[in-house]
C-alpha cells in the first residue's frame, strides 16, 4: 500500500496577507470536491469582517469553510484550543474526504496543527502582574526592548505591536530561564494524516501595491463603520490588531483619519514581511505564485 492510500492529505495554502490565498484555495477545493479549514485567527470572530478580509458570502457559498465566524471577540480562545478543535474537525472530515485544504496566514496556528503546541510553563501571578505593570507604566516599547534583549530570535518573528504575545514570551523566558524561541521547538506530534505545505508569494513591490489597494477597498466598503460598531469592545485581545487599533486611535482623536489609513497600510506591509520571515524558516514549504494553479495541482497529485 502506498502513502496515498495509507493516509489522507492536508494541503496548507498560506502566504503573506493580500497575496491571493482565498481565491486559489476555493478553486482547489472545488477541483477536489472538498472543504476548507481557516487558520486565519482574525477571521474566527463574527463581529469583524471587512478589516479581516474574510471570504465573501458568495465565496463561502461555493465551498464549505470551517472556523470562520465561530467566535465572538468577547470569547477567550487560544492556539492550543484551536489545535484541539482543528484536529477533531480533520478527523471527522477525513472519514469522507481523502484531501482537505487549510488556508490562512497565521503561522502559529498552522504550526499547531502540523506539529502540536509545546507545553510551556505558566508564570506566577506575581511575575505576570509585574510584567503587566511594566507595560502599563512604561509602554509597549519597554517590553519590546526587554524581549529583544533576552530572546532576539523570537523578537524577529513576533508581532511586536501585539503586547499579549510579547508579555507571554517574557513570562516564559523569565519563569523558565530559557528562550521562548527554543522552548517552542519541541518534539513533533504524530498526525493521522499527511501534510503538504504550500506558500503563495509574489514580488514585494506588487504585494505592497495589493496591500495598499486592499486597504482602500476596505475603507470604501465600510471599515470605519465596522470599527465604530466594536469601539466599546476595543480592549478585547481580538481587536488589538491591524486595521482596528489604527482607527481606534482616530476615534479617540489621537490622529487624523488619513493618517490612520496610512498607518494601516504601513503596519499591514510590516505584518506581511513578518509572515514571510516566519515561513522562510520552514524548509517543508513549496513556494509558488498565486497564478500557478496547474503546477500546484500537479504537486498535489504527485504527493
Describe this structure in words.
The protein has helices at 3-6, 21-31, 57-62, 79-93, 107-115, 125-138, 140-150, 152-155, 163-176, 180-183, 204-220, 223-229, 245-251, 257-280, 293-302, and strands at 9-14, 36-38, 65-66, 99-103, 194-200, 285-288. It is of the alpha/beta class and 303 residues long. It has 2 domains: 3-117 and 186-302, P-loop containing nucleotide triphosphate hydrolases (Rossmann fold); 125-183, Histone, subunit A (Orthogonal Bundle), CATH 1.10.20. It has a 6-stranded parallel sheet with strand order 3-2-4-1-5-6, sandwiched between helices. Strand 2, helix 3 (57-62) and strand 3 (65-66) form a beta-alpha-beta unit. It is globular.
Rg calculated over all Cα atoms: 20 Å
Major beta sheet, strand line-up = 3-2-4-1-5-6
Under CATH, the homologous superfamily of the largest domain reads P-loop containing nucleotide triphosphate hydrolases
Number of helical stretches of at least 4 residues: 15
Number of strands: 6
Order of helices and strands: HEHEHEHEHHHHHHEHHHHEH
Low-pLDDT runs: none
**Approximate shape:** globular
Into which percentage range does the β-strand content fall?
5-15%
Helical residue percent? 40-55%
CATH topology of the largest domain: Rossmann fold
**Main sheet properties:** 6 strands, parallel
CATH architectural arrangement of the largest domain = 3-Layer(aba) Sandwich
Question: Roughly how many Å apart are the termini?
Answer: 14 Å
CATH C-level of the largest domain:
Alpha Beta
Number of domains: 2
Structural class: alpha/beta
Mean pLDDT: 93
Amino acid at each position: 500500500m502506498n502513502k496515498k492510500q495509507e493516509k489522507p492529505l492536508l494541503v496548507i495554502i498560506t502566504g503573506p496577507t493580500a497575496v491571493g490565498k482565498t481565491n486559489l484555495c476555493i478553486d482547489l477545493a472545488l477541483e477536489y470536491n472538498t472543504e476548507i479549514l481557516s487558520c486565519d485567527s482574525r477571521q474566527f470572530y463574527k463581529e469583524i469582517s471587512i478589516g479581516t478580509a474574510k471570504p465573501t458570502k458568495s465565496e463561502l457559498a461555493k465551498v464549505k469553510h470551517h472556523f470562520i465566524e465561530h467566535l465572538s471577540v468577547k470569547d477567550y480562545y487560544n492556539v492550543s484550543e484551536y489545535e484541539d478543535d482543528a484536529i477533531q474537525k480533520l478527523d471527522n472530515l477525513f472519514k469522507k474526504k481523502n484531501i482537505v485544504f487549510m488556508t490562512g496566514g497565521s503561522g502559529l496556528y498552522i504550526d499547531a496543527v502540523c506539529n502540536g503546541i509545546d507545553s510551556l510553563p505558566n508564570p506566577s501571578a506575581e511575575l505576570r502582574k509585574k510584567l503587566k505593570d511594566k507595560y502599563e507604566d512604561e509602554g509597549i516599547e519597554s517590553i519590546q526592548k526587554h524581549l529583544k534583549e533576552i530572546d532576539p530570535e523570537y523578537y524577529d518573528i513576533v508581532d511586536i505591536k501585539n503586547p499579549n504575545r510579547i508579555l507571554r514570551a517574557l513570562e516564559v523566558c523569565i519563569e523558565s530561564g530559557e528562550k521562548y524561541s527554543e522552548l517552542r521547538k519541541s518534539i513533533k506530534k504524530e498526525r493521522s494524516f499527511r501534510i503538504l505545505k504550500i506558500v503563495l508569494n509574489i514580488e514585494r513591490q506588487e504585494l505592497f501595491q495589493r496591500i495598499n489597494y486592499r486597504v482602500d477597498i476596505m475603507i470604501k466598503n465600510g471599515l470605519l463603520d465596522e470599527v465604530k460598531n466594536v469601539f466599546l469592545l476595543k480592549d478585547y485581545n481580538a481587536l488589538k490588531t491591524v486595521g482596528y487599533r489604527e482607527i481606534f486611535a482616530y476615534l479617540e482623536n489621537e490622529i487624523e483619519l488619513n493618517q490612520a489609513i496610512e498607518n494601516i497600510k504601513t503596519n499591514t506591509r510590516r505584518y506581511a514581511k513578518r509572515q514571510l520571515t516566519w515561513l522562510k524558516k520552514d524548509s517543508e514549504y513549496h513556494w509558488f505564485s498565486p497564478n500557478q494553479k496547474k503546477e500546484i495541482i500537479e504537486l498535489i497529485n504527485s504527493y
